[in-house]
């Protein structure tokens, strides 16, 4: 019965109960070494290496594929998995997960993970289509990189090693929303420079759905700076950019087109004094 749980994947007691295992059976399975307790009411099939630490990727896969939790990997972490982040992680890794389900926070808090998890809200793009811009991608657990997409887009029918993750179009908007709080303006500019293959229709839809005026203005500012081929196919008429000025960086120079302050050294309109 417990062989239905993929090796290393972590589930709660309720999941095991659905298999027909009551509390006494779970205790018996742990005593026999068929299950390993890795947190309060959290269990996995024992791994060969015997470590108590759980890989963050396995935790995310378990939440999505087995616990059916509304959670995805996004922002900077999604860009990194897709190969768009050029900086090597310094020290302990930080992973951006997006979920508004209290059970997700509880699950992660009870685990000894190999990375620090930053949980952010999924409400950046509203409630009309919460999965807009998300993809189901094969995950290479050896290289921690993304493979082909599951075209069905249905996490419920995917192999347990398929990960729900923000596509590049959604991930860059999630990242720009973090400027300057946890991402520098310069880093955002460098990331945007490499985004040469965004899908215009999806990008338009995400910009229209995005609730962050700051993220949308930054996106269009960077698009205007880099002028990738896809930017010519983006229509901005239906994108609400709000009103009033936005200070993105302190003591920056004001960009009148997008009504934001940007670092002085980056603004091509500035003339030397």
Descriptive key words:
single chain; 3-stranded antiparallel beta sheet; 273 residues; 3-stranded mixed beta sheet; alpha+beta; disordered C terminus
Account of the protein in words:
With 273 residues, the protein is an alpha+beta fold. The chain has 3 domains: 1-49, no CATH class; 53-166, no CATH class; 168-238, no CATH class. 31% of the residues lie in helices and 16% in strands. The chain is built from 9 helices and 11 strands. The protein has a 3-stranded antiparallel beta sheet with strand order 1-3-2. Helix 5 links the parallel strand 5 (94-98) and strand 6 (116-120). Helix 4 (75-81) packs across helix 6 (168-176) and helix 6 crosses helix 9 (213-226). It starts with 9 loop residues before the first strand and ends in an 11-residue tail after the last strand. The relative contact order is 0.10. Mean pLDDT is 88; it is low at 269-273.
């Amino acid at each position: 019965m417990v062989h239905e749980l993929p090796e290393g994947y972590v589930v709660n007691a309720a999941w095991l109960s659905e298999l027909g295992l009551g509390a006494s059976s779970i205790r018996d399975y742990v005593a026999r070494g068929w299950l390993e307790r890795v947190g309060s009411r959290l269990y996995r099939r024992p791994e060969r290496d015997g470590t108590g630490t759980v890989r963050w990727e396995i935790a995310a896969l378990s939440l999505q594929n087995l616990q059916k939790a509304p959670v995805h990997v996004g922002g900077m972490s999604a860009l990194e998995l897709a190969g768009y982040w050029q900086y090597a992680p310094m020290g302990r890794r930080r992973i951006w997960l997006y979920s508004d389900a209290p059970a997700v926070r509880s699950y992660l808090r009870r685990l000894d993970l190999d990375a620090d998890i930053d949980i952010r809200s999924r409400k950046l793009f509203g409630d009309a289509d919460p999965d807009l811009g998300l993809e189901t991608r094969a995950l290479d657990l050896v290289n921690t990189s993304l493979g082909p997409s599951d075209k069905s887009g249905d996490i419920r029918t995917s192999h347990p090693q398929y990960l729900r993750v923000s596509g590049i179009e959604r991930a860059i908007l999630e990242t720009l929303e973090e400027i300057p709080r946890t991402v520098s303006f310069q880093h955002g500019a460098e990331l945007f420079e490499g985004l040469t293959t965004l899908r215009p229709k999806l990008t338009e839809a995400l910009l229209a759905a995005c609730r962050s005026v700051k993220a949308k203005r930054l996106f269009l500012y960077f698009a205007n700076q880099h002028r990738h081929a896809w930017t010519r196919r983006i229509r901005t008429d239906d994108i609400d950019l709000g009103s009033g000025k936005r200070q993105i960086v302190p003591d920056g120079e004001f960009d009148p087109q997008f009504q934001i302050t940007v670092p002085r050294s980056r603004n091509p309109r500035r003339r030397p004094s």
